Amino acid sequence: MRGIGKEAVAIAAKKQKFIETAYDLFSSRNIESVSLQDVADETGLGISMLYRYFANKQTLVVEAAVWKWKQFQEENQKRRPDANFEGMTAAEMFEFYLDSFLVLYRDYGDLLRFNQFFNVYVQSQNIDRATLRPYQGVIESFKKVFHEMYLRAEQDHTIRTDIPEQKMFSTSLHLMLATVTRYAIGLVYIPEDGFDAMEELETQKRAIMREYAVK
């Protein structure tokens, strides 16, 4: 039994090495230009072993995305004063949610670059829903936190609830994620004397807070 346990750990370690190596290559070079052979060569484990864990490139790409987003979520949760937002108003929960995007930009620029490549790859490859299901599960976890905030807002009235929850979630998600992504990949206007990206992102955060917070 002890031998079986060690073998399982070794198998998991090899699979994880493929995932992390693939993520590093995908986020630095873009997904389209990286082959499975590139990943196998970088790990030194060989292409035949890679195929033991991943049926094709699509499944590896999705697993790399899920792994990194979960890593971000776990780290981000450590910022919570309480695991269940106990004692926080809906407005405070909403600000925590918006601040998560600033943390994403500050500490996970590689993930934002990868996610940009990921969206392009998913569309170009027409990846089916079954393959994408693990990734969708990660996105649902964002919606779950937002839903908890909205329910609290219905009780304490610190965030508007005259706007449908799904519309508020979609608008705030797209505005913040699109903005931090553009900053991360350099698609922004750069004045001659430079600029403070975090200060500008804070400005957008405050604008969204003003839009949805109850005056």
Characterization of this structure:
- This protein has 215 residues and is an all-alpha fold.
- Helix content is 76%, strand content 0%.
- The chain is built from nine helices and no strands.
- It has helices at 2-29, 36-43, 47-53, 57-77, 90-107, 109-125, 129-156, 165-185, 197-212.
- 23% of the residues are buried.
- The model has no long low-confidence stretch (mean pLDDT 94).
Throw out a few tags for this protein.
single chain, 9 helices, globular, mainly alpha, 215 residues
Question: What would you say about this model in short?
Answer:
The protein is mostly helical and 215 residues long. It has nine helices and no strands.
Spell the H/E element sequence: HHHHHHHHH
Outline: globular
Mean pLDDT: 94
* Biggest sheet features: none
Low-confidence stretches: none
Total E-strand runs: 0
Q: How many helical stretches?
A: 9
Which class do the helix and strand fractions yield?
Answer: mainly alpha
Task: Kindly provide the radius of gyration, computed on alpha-carbon positions and rounded to a whole number of angstroms.
Answer: 20 Å
Strand content: under 5%
CA-CA gap between termini:
63 Å
Helix content: over 70%
Write the SSE topology.
Elements (H helix, E strand, L loop, with lengths): L1 H28 L6 H8 L3 H7 L3 H21 L12 H18 L1 H17 L3 H28 L8 H21 L11 H16 L3
Helix pairs in contact: 1-2, 1-4, 1-6, 4-6, 4-7, 5-6, 5-7, 5-8, 5-9, 6-8, 8-9
